[in-house]
C-alpha cells in the first residue's frame, strides 16, 4: 500500500500513519471503493480530518457498507432518502428498547454520511444544515408515530375539537422545533429545542381507563424525549432541551393550543418573541400545527414598526456581554465577541422590529433574511456581504470542530493536532492562516453588531476632562507634601493613609509585572477613580474599600475599561462602596457584578418574583442541565447580582424593610425552584421518572419546605436556609428508566444533589448554607421523607419546639400539589388541642436555653444588647407569637394561614387573642429591630449594640412577655 498520508502536514501525517494499520490492516475493502468518488487518498483525507469517521470505519464497517449500498457517499443527502432509511430501521421494531436501538444506529449511519460529505467539502453549508435538520425531523416523527400508536393501545386515543374543522376528532401531539432546528440550520452535533402542544382538552377513548388529554400527551412527550435523549450502550440520538416552553422547566411538558395562546398573549416576554422567530412545526399533525403557528404570529410580529423592541434588544445585548465576561467565552465562536450568535442577533433584531410590516422578514433561514435586508435597503450591501461571509465561515468552522469527534462544541482547540485538523478541513495549510481569517470575520461581525444595536453608553463614551493633578498624584510625579495637600483640598479625610495605600498598590508585584496594555489601562483608570472618590463622604475610607476591587481586577482590566467608559457606573461604584463595606467586598469578590451598575434605574428597582424567574430562565437557558459546573456558577452570579440590587435599593431608601426581606426571600425561592429542576432532570436522565399511581400528572411529587427566616419570609443578606424535603410518591414503586431505582432511593439522591448544589464551594463561593436539622428526627433522620411519615412524626414524636418551628414553615419549591398537601398537614398539626399551661412551660424552658447559649453573658449585659437573643429582643417576640399560635389555632384556625411573624401578629390581633394595640406596637418594634440588623449587616457589623439602644422597645416587649407568658 502506498502512503498517501505523507502529503498531509505534520502532525497529521504521523497520526494517520500510526492508526492506518488498525483501521484497515489488509487494505481498503472492495465495498468501500465501489463508489468511484472514494479512493485510498480520499479515505486518508477523511480519517485525517475526523476521529469519528475513523472510529466508525473501524468499529462498524458493516453499517458503513450498508450505508454505501443504500446510496453512494458522492450523492447528496436528501430528506426523502433520510425518510426512507428511517422507515427501514424502524420497520422491525417491536418494543420500546428496540426503538431506542434502531434510532441510535440510524443516527450513526446518518452522522457518518453527513460529516463525511461536510468535512471533505463534498457538501456545502446549505446541504449540511438541511440534511441535519431533516434527519432530526424524521427521527422525531418516526419515534412519535411508533410511541403514539403504543400509547393509544395502552390508554386509548385522545379526542377533542379539531382546530381545522371544529369537529370532534382524534388528536395528535404537535412538536414545535425552535432555534436552529426551526430554521433548518441545525449543526452536525446539536441539541434540539422543542415545545409540545396538543389541540384541545378532552379524554382518551377506547382504552382500559380513560386519561385526560394533557396527561396522555405529557406521558407521550416524556417517552419521546427518552427515545431521543437517553444515553444507552448505542449512544443517543439528540440532546433534547424543553426549556423554551412556557414557564420553562417548571411548566407543563405539553400544553393545549388555548393555553399556549393565553400564555404568550398575557405573559410572553420579549426574549420569547426572539425565540419564536424561528419556531416551526416539525412533527405531528402539521395542519393543526399550522393553525397554532398562525395564532401565535401576532405575538412575534407586531403590525407596526416596533421601535419599543429596541430597549429589550439592548438589554439582551448587555446580557450577551455579561455572559461573555462571566464565562470567558472569547475562544467560543458561537457565543464570543464577533461570533455566530451576534450575526443571528442582528438579523432577528430586524425581524422583531420590522417583521410585522415587511412580511418578507417573516421567514426563518438566516441567509434568506440577510438577502431580504439588502433588498429592502435596511442594511448596506457591504455589511450584508461581510455578515454572510462571516456566517458561512463560522458555521463551517463550527461543523469542523464538531465533526472531528462528533461532539457538541464551539471552542477553538488548543492542542496542535486538533488545530492541524481544523486548518485542513477549512482549506488552510496551517493553523495561523485559519486563525487570521477567523479574526477578520469576527472583527467585522463585532463592528456591525455594535453599530446596529448601539446602547446609550456605546453612543456616548466621551470622557469628561480630568484635572492633571489626579494623574500626577497617581503616578507620584510630585512630592509627597504636595500630594497630601492636593488630597486634603479635595476632601480626603486621611491624605497620608490614602497616599500609603496608593503607594502600596503601585509597588505591588502584580502591578509591577502587568503587561503594557494592562498598565496603560490602570494608569488611565486610577486618576479618574480618585477624582470620583472626591465626590463622596469620607473619600479615604471609601478608597480603602474600592482598592479591594482594583486589586481583584488587575489581571482583568476589561473591567477598568467598563468603568472608564461608563461614568454612571463609576459614580454608582464609589457611592455604594462609600455607604457599605459589605457591598464593596461583594464587588471585589465578584467583579462581574459591576455590570449591574451600568443601569441605575434597574439597580435601584429590583424585579418582582415573576421577573426574577424570567431572568434566571434566560441566564440558564443555554446551559445544559448536565453541565452542573456552569449551572452552579450561573446560579451564584444570579443570586449575587440580585442581592446587590436589593442592598443598593435599601441603602437608597427605595425599599422598606418588609420589601427587602420579600425580595431576598423571592431570590432564594427562584433559586430553589431551579435547583430542584436541575437535580430532578439529572436523575431522570439516569434512572427515568419516579413511578406514579395511574392517573398521576407525570411530574415530580417532591417539595422543598422552608423553615425559619425562609419560611417566615424574613431572609437577610447572609441568612442560611432551613430546609425540609418531603414527597408523596409511592415508596413501593420504582423509576421507569433503563437503570431503575426505588422511589425512596430516587428522592434521597434528589435531596442530596440539591444540598450539594446549594452548599458546594465553587470559584464564585457558596450559593446558600443549608441547615437540614429541622427534618424529622434531626440529623439522625432520613434526608427526605414521605409526607405521610412527616405527618406521623409531627403527631406522635415531635417536641414542642418542633411545632414552634412548624408555625414558620411553608412550601417554597417543587410540586405545587405536594406543597398544598403539606400546608394541609401543617394546618392540622398547628390546630391540635394543647394544654396551655404545659405548652407555656415548655416554650419558656426552650427560650431560657437559647438565651443562655446565644445571648449576652450576664457580666456584659450592662454594656451590650444582642438584638436577637437578649431579653426584649427579636426572639422574645417570635416565641410569644409561636406560643399564641400553638395555644389558640384550635379555636381560631385562620391563624395558620401565614408563616411570617408580622402577619401572624396582625392575625392574632384580629382574632382577639392579642390586644390590637399590643399587636401594632409589637409589629413596630419588630420592624425597628430587624431594620437595625439589616443596616448593620451592610456595614459588616454583628447584631450586638450598646446597652442603651432600643430601651423603649425592649421595655415594652418585656412587659408584653410578662403578660403573655405569666412570668
UniProtKB/TrEMBL annotation:
**Does the entry feature the keyword Nucleotidyltransferase, yes or no?**
yes
List the catalysed reactions.
[glutamine synthetase]-L-tyrosine + ATP = [glutamine synthetase]-O(4)-(5'-adenylyl)-L-tyrosine + diphosphate; [glutamine synthetase]-O(4)-(5'-adenylyl)-L-tyrosine + phosphate = [glutamine synthetase]-L-tyrosine + ADP
Q: What is its EC number?
A: 2.7.7.89, 2.7.7.42
Top enzyme class, one word, equals transferase
> Which superkingdom is the protein from?
Bacteria
Q: Which residues does the annotated region (Adenylyl transferase) include?
A: 467-967
Ranges of residues in domain Glutamate-ammonia ligase adenylyltransferase repeated: 43-290, 571-824
HAMAP family attached here? GlnE
List the PANTHER family hit by this protein, alphabetically: BIFUNCTIONAL GLUTAMINE SYNTHETASE ADENYLYLTRANSFERASE_ADENYLYL-REMOVING ENZYME, GLUTAMINE SYNTHETASE ADENYLYLTRANSFERASE
This chain's protein is named: Bifunctional glutamine synthetase adenylyltransferase/adenylyl-removing enzyme
Which organism encodes this protein? Marinobacter xiaoshiensis
Amino acid at each position: 500500500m502506498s502512503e498517501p498520508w505523507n502529503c498531509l502536514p505534520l502532525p497529521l501525517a504521523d497520526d494517520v500513519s500510526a492508526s492506518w494499520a488498525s483501521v484497515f490492516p489488509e487494505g481498503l475493502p472492495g465495498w468501500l471503493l465501489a463508489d468511484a468518488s472514494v479512493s485510498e487518498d480520499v479515505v486518508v483525507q477523511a480519517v485525517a480530518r475526523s476521529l469519528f469517521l475513523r472510529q466508525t470505519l473501524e468499529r462498524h464497517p458493516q453499517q458503513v457498507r450498508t450505508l454505501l449500498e443504500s446510496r453512494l457517499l458522492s450523492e447528496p443527502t436528501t430528506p426523502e432518502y433520510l425518510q426512507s432509511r428511517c422507515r427501514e430501521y424502524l420497520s422491525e421494531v417491536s418494543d420500546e428498547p428496540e426503538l431506542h436501538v434502531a434510532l441510535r444506529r440510524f443516527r450513526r449511519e446518518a452522522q457518518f454520511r453527513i460529516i463525511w460529505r461536510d468535512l471533505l467539502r463534498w457538501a456545502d453549508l446549505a446541504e449540511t444544515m438541511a440534511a441535519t435538520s431533516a434527519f432530526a425531523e424524521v427521527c422525531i416523527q418516526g419515534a412519535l408515530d411508533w410511541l403514539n400508536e403504543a400509547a393509544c393501545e395502552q390508554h386509548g386515543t385522545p379526542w377533542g375539537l379539531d382546530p381545522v374543522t371544529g369537529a370532534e376528532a382524534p388528536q395528535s401531539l404537535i412538536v414545535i422545533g425552535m432555534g436552529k432546528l426551526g430554521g433548518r440550520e441545525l449543526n452536525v452535533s446539536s441539541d434540539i429545542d422543542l415545545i409540545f402542544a396538543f389541540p384541545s382538552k378532552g379524554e382518551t377513548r377506547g382504552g382500559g381507563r380513560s386519561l385526560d388529554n394533557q396527561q396522555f400527551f405529557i406521558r407521550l412527550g416524556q417517552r419521546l424525549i427518552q427515545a431521543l435523549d437517553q444515553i444507552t450502550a448505542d449512544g443517543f440520538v439528540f440532546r433534547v432541551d424543553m426549556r423554551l416552553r412556557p414557564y420553562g422547566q417548571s411548566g407543563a411538558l405539553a400544553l393545549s393550543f388555548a393555553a399556549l395562546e393565553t400564555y404568550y398573549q398575557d405573559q410572553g416576554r420579549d426574549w420569547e418573541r426572539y425565540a419564536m422567530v424561528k419556531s416551526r412545526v416539525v412533527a405531528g399533525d402539521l395542519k393543526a400545527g399550522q393553525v397554532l403557528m398562525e395564532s401565535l404570529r401576532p405575538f412575534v410580529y407586531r403590525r407596526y414598526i416596533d421601535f419599543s423592541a429596541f430597549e429589550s434588544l439592548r438589554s439582551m445585548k448587555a446580557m450577551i456581554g455579561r455572559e461573555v465576561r462571566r464565562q470567558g467565552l472569547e475562544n467560543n465562536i458561537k457565543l464570543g465577541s464577533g461570533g455566530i450568535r451576534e450575526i443571528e442577533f442582528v438579523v432577528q433584531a430586524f425581524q422583531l422590529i420590522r417583521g410585522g410590516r415587511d412580511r418578507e422578514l417573516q421567514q426563518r433561514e438566516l441567509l434568506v433574511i440577510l438577502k431580504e435586508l439588502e433588498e429592502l435597503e435596511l442594511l448596506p450591501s457591504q455589511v450584508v456581504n461581510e455578515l454572510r461571509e462571516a456566517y458561512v465561515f463560522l458555521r463551517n468552522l463550527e461543523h469542523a470542530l464538531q465533526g472531528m469527534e462528533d461532539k457538541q462544541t464551539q471552542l477553538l482547540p488548543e492542542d496542535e493536532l486538533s488545530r492541524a485538523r481544523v486548518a485542513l478541513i477549512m482549506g488552510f495549510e496551517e493553523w495561523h492562516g485559519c486563525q487570521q481569517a477567523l479574526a477578520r470575520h469576527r472583527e467585522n461581525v463585532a463592528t456591525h453588531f455594535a453599530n446596529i444595536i448601539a446602547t446609550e453608553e456605546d453612543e456616548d463614551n466621551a470622557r469628561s476632562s480630568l484635572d492633571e493633578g489626579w494623574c500626577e498624584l497617581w503616578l507620584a510625579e510630585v512630592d509627597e507634601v504636595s500630594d497630601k495637600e492636593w488630597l486634603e483640598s479635595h476632601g480626603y479625610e486621611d491624605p497620608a493613609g490614602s497616599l500609603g495605600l496608593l503607594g502600596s498598590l503601585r509597588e505591588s508585584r502584580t502591578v509591577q509585572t502587568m503587561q503594557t496594555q494592562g498598565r496603560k489601562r490602570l494608569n488611565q483608570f486610577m486618576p479618574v477613580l480618585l477624582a470620583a472618590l472626591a465626590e463622596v463622604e469620607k473619600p479615604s475610607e471609601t478608597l480603602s474599600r474600592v482598592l479591594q476591587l482594583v486589586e481583584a481586577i488587575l489581571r482583568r482590566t476589561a473591567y477598568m475599561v467598563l468603568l472608564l467608559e461608563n461614568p454612571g457606573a463609576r459614580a454608582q461604584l464609589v457611592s455604594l462602596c462609600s455607604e457599605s463595606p459589605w457591598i464593596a467586598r461583594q464587588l471585589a469578590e465578584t467583579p462581574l457584578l459591576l455590570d449591574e451598575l451600568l443601569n441605575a434605574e434597574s439597580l435601584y428597582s429590583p424585579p418582582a418574583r415573576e421577573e426574577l424567574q424570567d431572568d434566571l430562565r434566560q441566564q440558564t437557558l443555554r446551559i445544559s442541565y448536565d453541565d452542573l459546573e456552569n449551572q452552579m456558577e450561573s446560579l451564584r452570579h444570579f443570586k449575587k447580582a440580585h442581592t446587590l440590587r436589593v442592598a443598593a435599593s435599601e441603602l437608597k431608601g427605595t425599599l422598606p424593610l418588609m420589601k427587602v426581606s420579600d425580595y431576598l426571600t423571592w431570590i432564594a425561592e427562584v433559586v430553589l425552584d431551579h435547583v430542584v429542576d436541575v437535580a430532578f432532570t439529572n436523575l431522570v436522565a439516569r434512572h427515568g421518572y419516579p413511578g406514579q399511581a395511574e392517573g398521576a400528572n407525570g411530574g415530580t411529587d417532591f417539595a422543598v419546605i422552608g423553615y425559619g427566616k425562609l419560611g417566615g419570609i424574613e431572609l437577610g443578606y447572609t441568612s442560611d436556609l432551613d430546609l425540609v424535603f418531603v414527597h408523596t410518591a409511592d415508596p413501593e414503586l420504582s423509576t421507569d428508566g433503563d437503570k431503575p431505582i426505588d422511589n425512596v432511593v430516587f428522592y434521597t439522591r434528589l435531596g442530596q444533589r440539591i444540598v450539594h448544589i446549594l452548599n458546594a464551594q465553587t470559584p464564585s463561593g457558596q450559593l446558600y448554607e443549608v441547615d437540614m436539622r429541622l427534618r424529622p428526627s434531626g440529623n439522625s433522620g432520613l434526608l427526605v421523607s414521605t409526607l405521610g411519615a412527616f405527618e406521623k412524626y409531627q403527631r406522635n414524636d415531635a417536641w414542642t419546639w418542633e411545632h414552634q418551628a412548624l408555625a414558620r414553615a411553608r412550601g417554597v419549591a417543587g410540586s405545587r400539589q405536594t406543597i398544598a398537601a403539606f400546608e394541609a398537614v401543617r394546618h392540622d398539626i398547628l390546630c391540635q388541642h394543647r394544654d396551655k399551661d404545659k405548652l407555656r412551660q415548655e416554650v419558656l424552658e426552650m427560650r431560657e436555653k437559647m438565651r443562655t447559649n446565644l445571648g449576652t453573658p450576664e457580666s456584659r449585659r450592662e454594656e451590650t444588647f444582642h438584638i436577637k437573643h437578649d431579653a426584649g429582643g427579636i426572639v422574645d417576640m417570635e416565641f410569644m407569637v409561636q406560643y399564641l399560635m400553638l395555644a389558640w389555632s384550635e379555636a381560631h384556625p385562620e391563624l395558620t394561614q401565614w408563616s411570617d411573624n408580622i402577619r401572624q401578629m396582625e392575625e392574632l390581633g384580629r382574632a382577639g387573642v392579642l390586644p390590637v394595640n399590643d399587636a401594632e406596637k409589637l409589629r413596630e418594634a419588630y420592624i425597628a429591630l430587624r431594620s437595625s440588623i439589616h443596616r448593620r449587616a451592610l456595614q459588616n457589623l454583628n447584631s450586638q449594640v450598646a446597652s442603651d439602644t432600643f430601651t423603649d422597645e425592649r421595655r415594652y416587649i418585656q412587659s408584653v412577655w410578662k403578660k403573655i407568658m405569666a412570668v
